[in-house]
Every structure is written in structure tokens, then in C-alpha cells.
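Board notes (copied after class):
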Amino acid sequence: MSSNQRTRPALAAFLIATGLAAGLSVPVPALAQGYGGTVSDFLVRADSLLAQERINEAIVQYQEARTLCPTPGEIVASLQGEARAHIAIKEFLPAAGLLEEAAQRFPDDPRMADILYLAGFARRQGGDVKGALPLLEKALEHHPTPDLLPGLKHQLAQAFRLTGQAEKATPLVIDFETEFPNHHLIPNALYTAAIALHDSGDLDKSETVYLHLIQTYPRTQAALEGLYELGVVLAERGKRSEAGEFFRRYANGNPSSPIAARAMERAADMTLLRSPSEAALYYGVAQVKAQSNPAPPSPDLAVSSWLGTKRAIADGLSRVWVLAVLAGVLIAILAGVMWLVLRRWRRRGAGQPDQALSA
């Protein structure tokens, strides 16, 4: 199942919270003064503009700071700041390039874990998951601070899974709940662990983790997405009735989702042989949602081209089943009547000798 989209104000707050002014902790000499002041003045002004979402103005200030005579610490702060500004306007790959430049030029900077983590985040958001992976691995090797470690491990686990290395993803997040108690990323980490276990073929443990996620954190988006993925796992394990229930719960809990239609179709597939009339209803709901909901992100999550045919089959089977039930009832009634008639006939036949003897 899937990254959350952020609004620009939320993204700006994220940038500030993850260390926007980290570079200002580096001692700055009183020299290196230009038309707009010292390097420190430019950096402070740029940080303030970024916080106000005046992104282009902030970028200019960060670049101006590097035209003076900055120290290595100031150069890193400038590159970091400009990268965050690009991230704020979703220019992820240029941001990653600036951060990678900082990492290459100043590998001994104490902020290296932060720099590499943000570079990996930018690469992944820009669609370059393979490029993000080594950056996140290096960030983990640089002893990240406790506030950075949970997010880093989760991002790295997702990158491993998305590059087909599910077996490396699971150890990073399987114990996330005990390693980082009460952390807000716990539901997301459990979801990542469950889907990685599914990818690696451990369906039994994947089912266990999904159930724990859904039962323990029921009001989270991760738990809601887990309903669909658990349905997939249960279907693969041959638990059709349970799978259908989780597909239906997903569609009911997220009716406007791009994959709600597919969820209802799969719920119907799981129900067809047991209750054709119920399946026909689900197929009909799937058809409506397929027309009204947004298109799914992948063709695999769209309804099948046979949806209309499936509904017709379900309708036909439901009518056949009704006729079969009625026929069964009639046969039972006729059998009962025949049995009563036969019983009375036998009783009469058995009573005839007695009547003859009495005569």
C-alpha cells in the first residue's frame, strides 16, 4: 500500500524543526563582510525568509553568503539552507545535489548524519530511490542523534523495500515499537515491516503484524491502508472469507480512495461462491466507485476489465441459487407428503388382516 503529501506550511515547519538554523551554532568570525553584512547576517536573513515562505529570496541570500569569505561551517550551513529552500518548493533533486556537494567537500562536518539523511530524503522524494539508498546508509553509519534515528531507520527500511531488498528492510523496523516507544512513526514502521515481510514471503508473520497494527492503532492512516494489504495476505493464504471482510472494511473506511473500487471488487471475488447475491452487490458498488473516485496510481490497483461480466455472473448465480433453494424446498415438501402417504398406506395394509379375522 503507500508517501504522505505535505502542504507548503507544514513542509516549512518540518524544515525548521529538523535543524534549519543548525549552521548558526558554528562560530563565525567578525570578518567576511559584504554589502549586506557578514556571512552570518546573510544566513540569518535567509533563514528568516525561508520561515516566511519567501523561498526565492531565501535562496538568493544563501547563495550570496557563499560569495563572501565563508568558513567551511558557514558553507555547509549555506548549502543546507538552500537545499531546504528547494525542498520547500518540491525541487527535490537540486536540493539533493547541494547536500551531496556539502558531504563531498566537508566529510568531517559534525552535521554529516543530518546532511546525508536530508540528501537521501530529497533523492527519494524526487523519485530516485536507488540514489537515496546509499545516502541513507551512510547517514546511519555517522551515528545520528536520537531525534534523527527513528525517521532515518524508517526511511532506510522503505528504500530497501522499494529497491527489492525486503529482507534488509524488516530488521530496521520490526522492533521499532519497543526501540522508540510512543514515537509518532510507530504505525508507519509497523506497516513497512508487515509489507516487507509479505514481500519476503513470510505471510504468517506479515498477517500477525498487520493485525497488531490494525488493533493497536486503529485510527491511523497506516492501519487503514493495512486493511487492504491484510486482505491481500489472507487471500494468498486461502482465507477467502476473512480476506473479503478486510477488503470491504478498507473500502468502507476510505470510500473516496483511488483503490476503493478495487477493494470492493476483490471483496466480491472472495464472496462469490459463498453468496452470489452479496457479491453482485459488491461488484455494483465497485463499478460506481471506479467511475466516481480518482484513478489509482498503478494499473494493478484498478478494477479489472471483467468487472461487468463478473457482476452479470453473480446476478445469474444468485437467481439460480434462489431457484435451487425453492426447488429444494419443493422437493422437501413433496418428499414429506410422499412419506406421509406411504406411511398411511403401510398402516392400512397392515390393518387388513386384523379386519378379516374379526369378521
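Comment from the instructor: The mean pLDDT is 86. The chain is about 70% helix and 0% strand.
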